[in-house]
Amino acid sequence: MVDVPAPPLRPWADLDADLISCIGDCCVLTDYASCLAVCAAWRSALPPPLSLPLAVLPADAAAGHPAVSVAACFLRARRWSRLPGLRCPTALIGGAAASCRCVGARDGWIALVATAAADGGALLFNPFTGTEIPLHASLYDPARDAVAAPKIVFSPDPTPRDFAAVSVTRPNRIAVQRAADGYSDSVVEYTNHLMDGADLVDVAYGGGGKVYCLAKGGEVYVLRLKRRRRRGAPWLPALEVGPLHRAPLGADAFPAPYNVISQHTDAKNLLLYDGALYQVWRRPTGAGSVTVDTPAAGGKRWVRISEGDVFVLRYEPGRWPRWAVAEWKKDLGGNAVFVGSNDAAVVRGEGVSVNSVYYWDNPPEGGHEPVVFNMATRASVRWPAVATGGTSSPVWYISPAATDEEATCEETACPEYDDEHSADM
């Protein structure tokens, strides 16, 4: 019997890219780094960790993580893996870095607040550079935690001498901090007079110092943060607030049946993308499903809203009703939308499901877990599809330098007040 020699092993570089991707998805972060070091072919087949969906995880002293950190989730590994080598915040009073939580994120920065027990204040922090910007204590009210997850939004590229930050500390109260040319002020305002007594559920920082405030019923108000002082003046200009639009008497801002659906989707977020303003509505977990009567909806009078259903509407200033159903491929490029206590973002790239909304759910065991809702199939799945232990903050961390993120409102014109009502301001 003649021995037949075994076929030669294929070089690592000749492996199929899909197979390499599967190998990478099964790895935790340290092993993933080893995969990237195999050869150029493997590096080209594997996306960089920062291009994957990232979350902000709480401190875990027992596991050697003394402060909050950014983590990536590899699909087949089905768990979060913390990015090594990041900086830790030091400015929180009383060494509270191990007891703080994340309440905002954008452009690589995060907003941190100390827990009530630590009483350490709030700050903006860049985990890659270690830069810290202390925030006024009025921007965080622990009582807000009992109502909804707190959220602080802030201006892009903040510096200690030039930034703005805004938060909804209670449904009827908004806090603002502005800094310009070394001058800083903080203001706490109630919505009773400024916003018709609206209960606010979300805020979004737009271009030109405009902050969009979303009320529970879907109404939007625009807050102008003027940060240019008059020459010699020791204070910053007063804030300006006004509705994004005013509905004619008896008219609805939303087309049927969304004028009724808005009343049954308590989880609402604002999204600024490519110069347009969107609302993302969701019927939250625990609310159950409901069938609603929509008599003005044409032939279909009864509409069923399932628990977890997501709806996305786009602001159309040149028409009435002012809001229309978003066309996912045309308006959002078929990409994924990430909403939470972070500034909502439109993202595309490896490891991201197209035509989907990523949001945070509240499991019965506590914490927050990510869920993906597919706008085409109208189905949602936990992401990844196993329990992850949850996170303490419903925040997506978006790295603009490493993700293939589309232009946001900062680079383009933002929606303004209706022209016919701007004189009312």
Supply the key terms:
8% helix; single chain; 6-stranded mixed sheet; 4-stranded antiparallel sheet; disordered C terminus; globular; mainly beta; 6 helices; 425 residues
Please characterize this protein's 3D structure:
The chain is mainly beta. It has a domain of 37 residues. The chain is 8% helix and 33% strand. The chain is built from six helices and 28 strands. The strands form seven sheets. The protein has a six-stranded mixed sheet, with no helix packed on it. A four-stranded antiparallel sheet has the order 3-2-1-27, with no helix packed on it. The longest helix is centred in the N-terminal third of the chain and has 9 residues.
Query: Can you tell me the overall shape?
Result: globular
Read across the widest sheet, the strand sequence of neighbours is 26-25-24-22-23-28
- Rounded mean pLDDT score: 80
Helix content: under 10%
Structural class, by secondary structure, is mainly beta
Please tell me how large the radius of gyration is: 23 Å
Our count of helices gives 6
How far is the first residue's CA from the last residue's CA? 96 Å
Major β-sheet, in short?
A: 6 strands, mixed
Number of strands: 28
Strand content: 25-35%
Quaternary structure annotation: single chain
Low-confidence stretches: 401-412, 419-425
Protein name: KIB1-4 beta-propeller domain-containing protein
Pfam family, one: Beta-prop_KIB1-4
